[in-house]
């Protein structure tokens, strides 16, 4: 039987970027906050001997244990979903700081077009540009409304960057200058300019200089060691929740962190969420933590799964298109091109997670889509993240997958290949969604989350367009041979792609078509906020973290308003509770 604890004002489920931001902002405001994190505690000291590619990049030391909890997957509704037994397409972080510990650090702002994508697309191209099976919708907030929160996140993280000529407008410069120019980034920029494109340095959470943020937390200067994604930073030079918002929250007298605390259920009475049920993973004890306000701040999949398993909100039905929980799951596509150089060599083993240069000429609605059968686009970039020896051996397409020739070509091209890749935006489709699996359960007996997802015609056409554009840049960079990427017949969950999963608990201005308002407050449950990329109504052409951070600061403000108004509806909601 679960032990019921003393009631607290606010409890967060997960302590990564979103949980850390909520904890820091509300604890500074005097609220009593408890943060429940199912993984263990981590700090910079834990990463002093982290340059072990096999342990961290291949065996996923920092990631979720799929033997305890995983997801099931299928491409189509008429297939039976099967469990994901090992991490592949995306990496689910676990432990204090979550995926914010092992990210690369690219920190983008979604475009104004993204936030009002349905309205802006209809206005320019007419209604139903994509067809009725695409569930495109606005986010319920404009870029001008969200812009201050973008900057608030960038100031907290100390982001290093420079003006993006084709990006979202900025009221303030980046807190720190861009990262170093290298021969590779310069070659990309020169090629882009010769093609009349507009290159710039990627905005980076690997800092170009030591920085103290407004809360007094210090982030150190990047050492360009090349061990960022899938690794923690032993220099304390990567902007992570562990370097910024979590220490700020812990520095108050109002935040209590509980690690090894796995939340299995929201305690819901049909009107209000009165707390959460969780298990102490070290002792096996079960607890109920009552709270006035509950904030889901875990990863995309877990946010949706907790709501579905707890009976909170209306599950999405792709047949009738009714319901909202699980709706608009989106991922990304990865068009691009590899360029092989026969004589020139590059120091690709050096780098940092966000070291690179990009162009936004093919992103959002920055080019006319009148004569193409797709919308949106993606940022195209060359990145110098550090080519480590085990996981990096790009070879020409006609090379065998093993044997003497494979080894010879791997060695030859290890320093002789440059890639220009794009992050292709993902548009929501009625048949791409999240639900509960009817057959498989986790170790606690709870149904696993089921992902139904496949590429669409929108994806294929966008992929082909962007791959051609990337190939043009690589060719202009001087490659002797260029190989554009191809998209597979179906989405495959096995090979790694990105951890840029979005949707399932989407935001909007209408409770009929969205789960949360623009403060990420549940339409159906006033004292429940759901924060993270689960709120994205589609996925843009960038890494999601910068937009996640902005929405988290917006949600923190909404929670403050909710407290000030003694539990009344947050100002700006357009409807009362859904009936």
Automatic annotation (TrEMBL):
<protein>
    <submittedName>
        <fullName>GMC family oxidoreductase</fullName>
    </submittedName>
</protein>
<dbReference type="GO" id="GO:0050660">
    <property type="term" value="F:flavin adenine dinucleotide binding"/>
</dbReference>
<keyword id="KW-0560">Oxidoreductase</keyword>
<dbReference type="InterPro" id="IPR007867">
    <property type="entry name" value="GMC_OxRtase_C"/>
</dbReference>
<dbReference type="Pfam" id="PF00732">
    <property type="entry name" value="GMC_oxred_N"/>
</dbReference>
<feature type="domain" description="Glucose-methanol-choline oxidoreductase N-terminal">
    <location>
        <begin position="218"/>
        <end position="330"/>
    </location>
</feature>
<dbReference type="InterPro" id="IPR036188">
    <property type="entry name" value="FAD/NAD-bd_sf"/>
</dbReference>
<keyword id="KW-0285">Flavoprotein</keyword>
<dbReference type="GO" id="GO:0016614">
    <property type="term" value="F:oxidoreductase activity, acting on CH-OH group of donors"/>
</dbReference>
<comment type="similarity">
    <text>Belongs to the GMC oxidoreductase family.</text>
</comment>
<keyword id="KW-0274">FAD</keyword>
<dbReference type="InterPro" id="IPR000172">
    <property type="entry name" value="GMC_OxRdtase_N"/>
</dbReference>
<feature type="region of interest" description="Disordered">
    <location>
        <begin position="160"/>
        <end position="179"/>
    </location>
</feature>
<feature type="domain" description="Glucose-methanol-choline oxidoreductase C-terminal">
    <location>
        <begin position="428"/>
        <end position="552"/>
    </location>
</feature>
<dbReference type="Pfam" id="PF05199">
    <property type="entry name" value="GMC_oxred_C"/>
</dbReference>
